[in-house]
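Suppose a classmate hands you a notebook page containing two proteins, each written out with its sequence and a corresponding row of C-alpha cells. How would you begin to make sense of it? This section walks through that situation. The first entry is reproduced here exactly as it would appear on such a page.
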Amino acid sequence: MGLTARDMSDMGRLAQLAANPQDTTREEIYLAVASLYRVQGNHLNNREKDLMREILQRLTRDVEMAIRIALAERLAEDTSAPTDLILLLADDRIEVARPVILRSPLLTDEDMLRLIAESDVGHQEAVAARPHIGETVSAALAESENETVLVTLVRNATARISGATYEVLVDKSRKFVALQEPIVHRQDLPPVLATKMCGWVSDVLKTYIVRNYPIEHAKLDAAMASAEHSLNSGPSAPRPTPTESAQKLVEKLYTAGQLRAGFLLRVLHQGQIDIFDLAFAKLLDLPLHETRRTLYERGPKPVALACRAVGIDRCVFATVFKLSRQARLMKPVLTAADMQIVDGAFSTYTKTAAYEELQAMAKKG
C-alpha cells in the first residue's frame, strides 16, 4: 500500500498525508484509512473515528471512482464493517453507493428514509430495488413523483407494501402508464384496487385483471364509472402539507445557501413537485399556499415573474410551466399571446422588481 504500520497507527500522520500526499498517492491513503477503519473500527476511540471519517470525506472527491466502487463492492456484504464507513459510501455518487444500498445488512430503515429524503433519484431507485424493504420505506418511496422510482419499487417482488401505499400507487398509475402493468402483476395487490384500475388501464390489462382477480361485474362497472368521472373533473388538488422530510430538506439547503434556481429545476425534472413548491415558496419569501396560487391559478405572467425573481432563465420558462402543470394534472397550454406576456415580464422586470411585484400581489390577495 505504500504506508507502514506505524504510519497507519498514527492518526496525525494520516491527516497530514491527506492534506499533503508527498510520495504517497491519495488513492493509497484512502484505501489504507478505509482498511484500517474496517479492521480496527471497534477499537478506535471517538476522536480517531471522527478523524478517519474526515480524512475519507476529504479524499473522496480526489480518488478515482473505480477505487471507491471496488471498496463499496468489497464492503457491501461485510457485517463487521463500521456503520459509519458504510454510510459514507452510501452517500457517495450512485455508482459507488449502489452496491452498498442494495446489499449492506448494516443499513436500517432510518438510513433508507434519510437517503430517500436527501439524495437524488439514482439513490432512491437503489433503495426501491433493495431486497425486503419494509412498509415504512415503501410508503416513503411511493410519495415520489418520479416514474422510474415508482416502477422500480413495484417491480421489487420482495418489497412489503401496505394497503394504504397501494392506494397511493394505484392512483398514480393514472398518470404513469408504465406503473400499471407491474402493479397489476403483483401478487399482493388488493383485489378491490385491481378492480379500481379497470377504469383506466388498457384492454389487455383489464382482461388480465378480470381473469386473475375475484371481481364482481357490478363493482367493475362502478369502478369504470368512477374513473371516468374523476378524469373529467379536472386536476387533483396539491398536497396541503408536504412531508416533514421535504420541509427539513428545503430549510437545510436554504440555511446552507444552496437553495438556488438549479435545485428547483432538478427536483422539477425528478417529479418532486412538493419539494419544488416548497423551495419556490422559500426563495420568494411567500407562504406555500400563496406560492401555489401564483404558480397554478393566476396564468403565465405570475409564473414568469416568479421565475425571474429566483433567477430561472427565460429559455427554460416553457419547461418549468409545462412540467409543473403536468405534475398537477393541468393542461400546460401557452398561446402566442401568453408568450408575448411572458417575454414582457422577463424583459421589463429585474429580479428585484419581479420579487417586489409578487409581494404586492400577495398582499392584495
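The notebook's second entry, a different protein, reads as follows.
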Amino acid sequence: MSSEPALTAAGGVRLIDSKVSGVIERPFRFLPLAARSGSFCLVVALGLAGCAGGTNMAATDTATKHSETVMAADPVRWSQALEQEPDWYSGAEAVRIADNVLLYQNQNGGWLKNIDMAKVLSEPEKAHLKAEQANADAQTTIDNRATFTQMEYLLRVYKATGQEKFKKGFMRGLDYLLDAQYEDGGWAQFYPIRKGYYEHITFNDGAMMGVMRLLRDVSEGKGAYAVVDTERRQKAASAIGKGLNIILRTQIKVDGRLTAWCAQYDRHTLTPAKARAYELPSISGSESVGIVKYLMEIENPSPEVIRAVEGAVAWFEQAKLTGLRLERKKDTALYKGYDVVVVNDPGASPLWARFYEIGTNRPIFVGRDGIIRDHLSEIEQERRAGYSWYVNSPQALLEKSYPQWKQKWASRQ
C-alpha cells in the first residue's frame, strides 16, 4: 500500500511546490573569449597603469567601467528573447538572432520546435539550414510555443530596425497559421498534418491559445501589428471567431454543468482524446487556465462566453486540492537528480492536478504504461520528475483575474 496521502477535490487537501525561496539564481556567464578579449586586455592594461601610478584613480574608474560592460553583456538565450527592453531589438545581437530565425523558417512559413534560435551558427551550419529550407516535407508545429513565438520576435526586430526581411518572415508565418486552421476552427500540433495524436485539436502546453492570441493582435492591428495588410487582418479576425466557436463547443459538461477543457480533442468528433500514453482524456487543471484567461480578455463578451467562464471558475473551485505539499528530494542517482514526493501540510497553498477524471474530479496519474493510478508515487520516477503533475496557476485566476472580470462583465449575463 502507498503511504502517500489521498488527493481529493472536495476541499480536504491542497498542494504546493515547496521551494527554499522565490529567487531564481542565474550563474554569471562570460562572453566568448573572442568577443571579450579586446575589452579584457584594455581592462588589464588600465588596471596596471593605475597600479604603477599609485594614485591613478581615473584609470582605475575607467577599468571598472570596462569590466562592468563585459559583465553586462550577458548573452541572451532564446527563452529570454521576448523579455528584453525595446531598445535591445535594434541592436546587433537581436538582428543576429533574427537572421537565425529566418534560416530556421521552413518553406511553408512555420518552424519546428525545441530549437535554440540564439545559437551562434557557423558558416557550414548556415549553409545546411539554407539547403533544408527547400524541403517541402519539413515538420512544422505550434507545439512548445513554436512558430508564433518566432513570429512575434521577428515583428519586434522589424519594428526596431525597419528591415523588410523580418517583416516578410512574419507575414509568411502568418499565412502558415491561417492555412493550418481546421475548417471548424481548431489547430493541430503539426501542419501539414502529421498522423497520430499530432492531428488532434491541441490546447496542450498553450499551443492553440498562443496562436489565438497572436491572431487577435493581428486582427486588431495595434502597435507593431499595424503593418499587417487589411486582407490578412480580416482573415485573422475570421480565424479567431472560428477558434472561439471551437473553444465553446469543446467545454466539457458533467451532469449538464459546464466544467473546463481537455488538453486535446479528436478533430472529427470534438470529444476529449488521448495524446501520449500518460495523457488520457480528462479535464485539465493546467491548459484550462490559459483558455479561461483568453475568454476573460474578450471585450464585450457574449452570454455564451460569460457562461463558459463562470462554469470553468466553478469547476476550479471544486477541483482545488488542499492540505498537501509537493517536495523535491535530491538524489543524483535518479533521473533529473531528484524525486518528487507528496507530503501532508495543512498550511500549504492550494494547487490543482494536471489531469482529473471526467465526471468524478478524481486526480489521475499515469505512467508510460497508460494505467491510471491514484497517487503520484505509484508511477515511475522518470515520469514523476519529468512531467508537471500539479499547477498553481488557477489560484491567481480565482483570486485576482476572475474578480476583476466579474465586476466588469458578469452582471451582463
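A careful reader of the second entry would note: Confidence is low (pLDDT under 50) at residues 6-60, 62-72.
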